[in-house]
Design goal:
Length: 126
């Protein structure tokens, strides 16, 4: 099955880069915003939302690859996807409890998600 000429696998491959790069940008910006107040802007949170929604979309595309395209992948690749999705939930659940550290929480969290994307792309595929 394809969408705009791309199979679900093709979309999953393209979106892996989108997810990884948006989380990298959000992670660096949020970490820097912990030290420099002038970087604490509303646009940072928009980027964080985009980056974390990208994780969800990436996992959904991965499920479609497995179910519709029938591709078999290493189980570790699947684990990376679901750990990344769980990390989004954990970040969101802790945001109010450690408000004074929220920029470090999201900075480190988004960089972790970036790392999961990289590992998923290069180490978890067959």
């Amino acid at each position: 099955m394809s969408f705009l000429g791309l199979t679900f696998l093709g979309l999953h491959d393209v979106f892996a880069w989108i997810m990884t790069l948006t989380n990298a940008a959000a992670g660096v910006w949020a970490t820097a915003a912990h030290r420099k107040e002038q970087l604490r802007r509303r646009e940072l949170w928009y980027l964080v939302i985009v980056a974390q929604v990208a994780v969800t979309i990436q996992v959904l595309l991965g499920v479609l690859v497995l179910q519709v395209d029938g591709l078999e992948v290493q189980q570790l690749h699947v684990v990376y996807g679901f750990v990344a999705l769980a990390a989004v939930g954990i970040l969101y659940s802790y945001r109010q409890q450690i408000m004074q550290w929220q920029y470090l929480l999201y900075g480190g969290g988004c960089l972790f998600l970036m790392g999961m994307g990289i590992r998923g792309m290069f180490l978890g595929t067959p």
